[in-house]
Structures are given as structure tokens and as C-alpha cells.
């Protein structure tokens, strides 16, 4: 506890944080050197600190920068200790990613994932470490240094969660490979959220029409939001449309309805942002059209007038409307998966189930929803005075047919070349990217799922699952596990408290509540191993978002 304060400061920290440990909560913000502001914050949040401050001399303000840093370090030390104590002697997984800060320094964030004493999946930010380069060896050295600092060993590691870059998942010299050489039980999972985003990127790259569509959407967002005047015009135009629709009874009014929206640029690494951009463009299509018309008529720059005219011509086409609604439906079918992957307590078995449901939903769309999509697009075109194509006529691109282009009908182009092909590409990429779903390890894990009254339970697979972790299950434990599983499943199926559980996370919590984790320790060990395996690196990315608030342009020289 190298806090480095004078005796009076030591007394302040010790008494204050002893009180915090009892209350298990501290909401103390130390961000400046203003005496009155900081003093008021401390007094408001901790009675024991207030009592100590009342007894100190008036010249002891505790506002010197060194003391401020000592207080922050003490908070960080106590918080990290609380996390390590919560983890105890159990095993854990790590989630790792790297990002540049405002000083163009490469920072690596590390998050621990484990099951706490109440059976709850927990992800805790451990720290940010500056790395000189992002080679796999440098990252491994930095991870080992951080873990050793808190007396954590790589031998307790049971999972690794990273993105798909070569330095992370390289087969020969990647970070995951270097760690697996030391610990065979530290299984690697490529971040599910990252894989989901890659499926969209690949589809856009492989299908020219979809790539052109997303490029056009990006141009629309850029030109419409390029100035405050255009944004204000867009808001006013949308407000007028909503008011008119309310007066005509086309929209319902009520709390939370018809909120102000805007066109936002889709993020390259966020699946949900593409979906929201498309939804907002559909809702604000008329208003967007009005802004583009205004730019075409009033802009002082000929380049902007020409660009606005070109975009207007493209968006007032049946092909753009079709692609707009097609991608909306495709992204909608996987939006639940995208949202679920951002949750800290998500387990890999449930994530696998959601991947499978998303693929089934896409297949159903391909088989049964062509007519519904065509009707929706036709209705949209009628509403916005966009010419509706005759599906039996020959398909043409632009004004006239291309030279040597095959003579196909509009129906063939939109149904086969667009509808079927884009969905097939999406399904193919989901199958290729989420290859973990078919691995032997995860198929064994799925047998612990309590859904449908433990219908997936399989003793043989669960016994085989235990052999993947030889450091946790000896040969004697594997033999004992077989007998314990027979007793366990009879107990579970005859106990009403366990028949309506929705996932392995619920199972772990219920086992702890009913002391079944003590009665069936080998089974509970398997449950914890499943829950410890990482799913997505969303928690790590959130820490980088926070880092940018703390270390910003005004505080760009802040040390590590």
C-alpha cells in the first residue's frame, strides 16, 4: 500500500476506505484541485472521511497534486483488491484489445471474466498498459506483467477473447498460440461481435450492388449533415412531416412516440449502427429529399449542386428502394444477436443458440418473404413518387441496356441476383465466421443447457467435456463425474425450481442459491468453465471509450 502520504493523510485514507469496505460502495470523484469542490464531494459521500477532515488543521486541504494522485492511486488499489478478492483462487478468462490514446500511444486494456461466489458471470476491468508495439510477444509480456502485479498466474487462465487480427489469432506466432503453448486449457474464442460485423463487410465487398448501396448511404449522411444549416433544415422538414401526419391521423401520439431523429454515420465496427442508419433514412426519406433539393438549388458550389443532383437521381430509383428495404430486413434478423453480444453476462452456449436462430431467420426470409418484401418496396415507392418497375420487362441498368449484358427480366434480377444472392452470401459468411459453433468443445458445453427441462443433457458428452481441462479434472474426477451426473440429472428433473431455467447463467445462480454447487461440485465446475469462456470484447471496448473521456485533448500529457 505504497500510498506515500504523511501520517495525517494515511489516517484519512485508512479510515475512509475501511468505511467504504463496509458499505461496499464508493461514489467519490476526484478530478480537480478546487478545495471547496473536492471537500464538499468527500463530505457528502463518506461520514467517516468528513469526521476526519473536521479534526484536521485548517491548512490541511489535501489539494496538492501529489496528494490528489495518491488518493486516486489508493482508490484504484482498493478497487482492484476488491476485484481480486471477489475472484479468489478461481480460474478466469481474459479479454484483450489495443487502441491508441490521444497522445498516439498504443494502449492495451485487459478485462477479467469469471464466475463469482454467487454464481454470477462477472467481467471486471483490470487495467490499461502502455505497449511499445503490438507484436504478439510484446502483448504477452505486458499481460504477464499485469497479472503478476496482482498475483494472478497464466496457469489459472481458461479462456482468451480477442479480435481477429494476425497478431492476436495467428496460427504460429499469434498471442493466443503463445499462451496456449504454456496453458492448453486457455481456449481462444474470436469475439462474436467482431465476427458478426465482418459478415456484413464481406457481403458488401462481394456484392457490387450492396457495396454501391452502402457507399451511397454514406454520401447521403455526409452531404445532409455537412453544415448546421442543413441539419436544421432537416429537423424542421421532419417536424413538419410528423405534424402533418398527426393531423391526418396517420401517426399516433403519446409518450415516447415520434421523437426527434437524425441521420448518423454508420460505424465500421458496429453492426447496430448500420441498422439504425437505414431505419432513420426510411423514416426521414422525404425530409432528406427536401434537403438534397435545397442543396441542388441554393448551394454556391457547383460541385455540391452536381453531387446533390446525382444523389437525388439515384435515390429516386426502384433499385435503391429495394436495396434499402432488403438490407433493413437482413440486419433486423440479426439485431437481437448483436444486442445480446454487448451484454457482460452473456454465455457462449446462449450466443451459439442466437447465431443458430439468426441463420434460421434468414433462411425463412429467403424461402417465404419475397412477396412481402416486394409489396413493401412498392408501397414505399408509391408514397414517394418513385417509378415502380414491371417485373416482366427486360432489366436495364441506367438509361439503356449494357452492351453484351444477358437479357434477363426485372424479376430475375431483383429476386435471384439481389434477394437470393445477398441472403445466401450472408448465410455463407455466418457459417464460415462462426465455426466455433460446430467445434467438439462447444457441442459438449451445450449439453449443460437447462432449457426445455434439460433436453440437451448428455452424460457421455459431458464426461468427454471434462477431459478438455486435465488441470481441473483428474482421471479419478472424470470417473466420479459419471456417477455424479446420473444423480444430478434425476435431482434436477424432479425439482420444480430448476425446470423453468432459461440458460446456464440461471443454472449457476440457482445451484448456488440451493447449495447444489456443494452437493455436485464436479458438475458445478463444468458450469463455471462454460460461463468463464469469453463471448465478445464489448467490455474492453467500453474501457477505451472511457479512456478517451479521461485522457483528452486538454489532458493529452497524462502519464500511464
Automatic annotation (TrEMBL):
Domain of life of the source: Eukaryota
Residue span(s) of domain HAT C-terminal dimerisation: 518-558
A GO term, aspect molecular function: protein dimerization activity
Domain DUF4371 span(s) in chain numbering: 45-174
Stored SUPFAM superfamilies: Ribonuclease H-like
InterPro entries assigned: AtLOH3-like, DUF4371, HATC_C_dom, RNaseH-like_sf
Name of this chain's protein: Dimer_Tnp_hAT domain-containing protein/DUF4371 domain-containing protein
Source species of the chain: Lithocarpus litseifolius
Transmembrane segments: 518-540
Keywords: Membrane, Transmembrane, Transmembrane helix
